[in-house]
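Model it.
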Amino acid sequence: MKRAIFPGTFDPFTIGHYSIVERSLTFMDEVIIGIGINENKNTYFPVEQRERMIGELYRDEPRVRVVSYDNLTVDLAQQLDARFIVRGIRTVKDFEYEETIADINRKLTGIETILLFTEPELTCVSSTIVRELLQFGKDISMFLPEGMEIPPADRK
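Modeled.
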């Protein structure tokens, strides 16, 4: 079985993330969306809410699971018997960063990283920008996957 981890903070999960998952499902049997918990990051949504929102989005897709974790991504991959890590890249800067991590992960564990280039129309979409728009009360629905809703009461 070809199983991949798609790691990230996903605060919030955007149409760019959705695209990476959908494209990964064309060559993976299973994609595990791994929500990394980093106490040093100031997130907008609590991890439990992010898990619920993404889990609800994929409730009818048995090949997608959502988990949260607070260790190294390669350790999660080994725990879940995933041989691949999938990452999306928008820019050359993203590529350089991801290449370094991919090289280290491969040396440590043999786990391969697959980099998917973001579709051109989605390169401007980032969780950071979407989160900032949300904080200023802007409508972010155009940046979220269809069917994903963000209940105001569940925000931090």
